[in-house]
Amino acid sequence: MMDLRAREWPGLKLDQHDATVVVTLCNPPAHTWTVDSLAALRDLVGVLNGQRDVFALVVTGDGEKFFSAGADLKQFAAGDKAQAREAARRFGEAFEALSAFRGVSIAAINGYAMGGGLECALACDLRIAEEHAQLALPEAGVGLLPCAGGTQNLTRLAGEGWAKRMILLGERIDAATALRIGVVEEVVAKGQSLARAMEWAEKAARQSPVSVAACKKLIQATRQQTHATALVSEREYFVDLFDTADQKEGVAAFLEKRAPQWKNA
Predict the structure, then answer these.
(1) Is residue 17 domain-shared with residue 144, that is, in the same domain?
(2) 199 is an active site residue
(3) Which of 64, 93, 96, 119 is catalytic?
(4) Residue of 139, 171, 186, 234 with catalytic role
């Protein structure tokens, strides 16, 4: 495993715990995204995809108040379309890379997740919110729109009605509502989201990472493929796993009544 901290990752703090890398968003006071931190997230996911000993990625915010407040609106004050296009491209690259991470990604939402902050969480596989967290996509209130997957990912999770309430009406929701409508999978007490995310990451590490990567692709394929096409892909992926070392190890470990030793290969 390369030493991730030997390289500069603007706006991000990194730690590795066994097979899990924790990314802490750190751009005080509200952990807003910059073109540099978005590029850093994109590049980081690319690096982690090549690390066979990394099975999970946890994203959280520094401190107790903010996960991330999204984009810094000061950069759009001049109305520069070229600058807006560059920012939108960087957001798309970063969060699409995060969504395509081959392992399990978990957002530990420790406070306000607004705009591009919520879109980052929506790009993760799973979300845990602390009970005081507030979630919103307020872009239409300042003449903009969510351009980093918000209109698409929120609708898939919560349905069109709630997506329209949050985006068209600018409604902010609390953690309990987010849980009820399917935007997050669990709500925990203040200060406990990271610990819970690490527990989930440990569960993920007990699964074959090769199988997890294949399952994740199939689950996300439901966004584009027809049901019939996806069923064919499911069977093909199943057979393809028989070319992997992890398939052989998993079956052998089960029959020998021991814990498997995954190679992610």
Answers:
(1) yes
(2) no
(3) 119
(4) 139
